[in-house]
Design a protein that fits this description.
7% strand, single chain, mainly alpha
Length: 58
Amino acid sequence: MTIPKDPVMLLSFINTQLRDFYPDLEELCASLSLEQGELKEKLALIDYHYDKGKNQFV
């Protein structure tokens, strides 16, 4: 699966995946072979951070 490179499109994609398919960020990253730290850094560039309670980047 190819994930979007644009941070805004990536945000939408990741939050949709978290909402529809994954109970948490760890499982999403493991399933999609993503580096959790890199994903968090990329979304932090547009001021979004993972909220474990909401299971979304907000």
